[in-house]
Write a structure and sequence with these properties.
Largest sheet: 5 strands, parallel
Number of strands: 8
Shape: globular
CATH architecture of the largest domain: Alpha-Beta Barrel
Radius of gyration: 21 Å
Helix content: 40-55%
Structural class: alpha/beta
GO molecular function, one term: hydrolase activity, acting on carbon-nitrogen (but not peptide) bonds
CATH superfamily of the largest domain: Glycoside hydrolase/deacetylase
InterPro entries: Glyco_hydro/deAcase_b/a-brl, NODB_dom, Polysacc_deacetylase_ArnD
Number of helices: 10
Pfam families: Polysacc_deac_1
Protein name: Polysaccharide deacetylase family protein
CATH class of the largest domain: Alpha Beta
Keywords: Membrane, Transmembrane, Transmembrane helix
Amino acid sequence: MIFKLIKTLFAVAAIFAIALYYQELWPFWPILLIAIVYSLLILLLSTNVQFNFFVKAYNKNPDYPQNSVALSFDDGPVENTLKILDILDEHNAKAAFFCIGRNIKKHPEIFQEIIKRGHVVGNHTYSHTRKMGFLSTESVLKEIQQCDQIAEKIGEIKLNLFRPPFGIINPKTKRALQKTGHQVIGWNNRPYDAVTKSSSKILNRITKDLKRGDLILLHDNMPKTAPILEQLLVVLKQRNFSTVRPDKLFDIHAYN
């Protein structure tokens, strides 16, 4: 609804500017400015799932009744995922794993182990392509459905949770999700562990403003994640935080 309103307002402004330009009452630059501002606005709103602009995404729940935070891991399953699972077990912690379809296919036994140990799994597309923001609706739909099909075949579950690669949600992704019906899971605590070398910086980013109902984003395909997780769980215990799966945090169904 808001997207349609923005499109309409910019379209009206563009038509008005063009009309004045052809009547030689305005120069050309206002038309160009309108186009640039519109493009930049849509780009900004598309690259952050937390804006909830094109679709509703679950990012945090400060009203959760317990002093809990949710842990989530992207881009697995990989061999390193097993280390993550062992650490979570040691601390009696539960988490969500947003899995890439081709990685599920490559490591089916690890995918099954995630489920077996009581964690929730979600859809993170089949290939996690860097071209995600430029795919057609049909291509996005195929990415989501392929991951669903592999997860159902190997895990015997029908995924309901979806996390977009890079947090990109645009009109094409919106249309694809309208067809699949997935619930979109974002985050509000992102330490950029995939691009930051310093483990201490990553841990500090997570913990410095940690609040009840926060949803933390980490990556189980990064070797440094396991030791960071070990330290994080100790800090959580010291601050009297418990962990909860995202589906419990938001009171939504993990599977269909």
